[in-house]
Amino acid sequence: MANIEVFIAGTYLCEDIVKQVNELACSKCDVVIYDLHQSSATAEWIDIAKRYGVQSVPCVALNGKRFDVEKVKKAKVDGVLKTHAQAQE
Questions:
Q1: Of 3, 22, 60, 66, which is most buried with the most CB atoms under 10 A?
Q2: Among 8, 26, 36, residue whose Cα is nearest residue 84
Q3: What pTM value is reported for the model?
């Protein structure tokens, strides 16, 4: 099972990445969305973003490491995140 974390700030670009990640994630993948723009964003979410070095959004982390958002955007077939997730298991 892969852990996929998506950091967003409520923009249409962020919404698009969330949609793509959800479409590409495996059925066993755990997808967590951190909306850093929400007033409910916690200090814990911000600390997680800082730990990953998030300086712009959207940003995707796969199993604790930042994952190239461009790879998600360019994905044409189901399996891009699955392949990377399985390789790290």
A1: 60
A2: 26
A3: 0.78
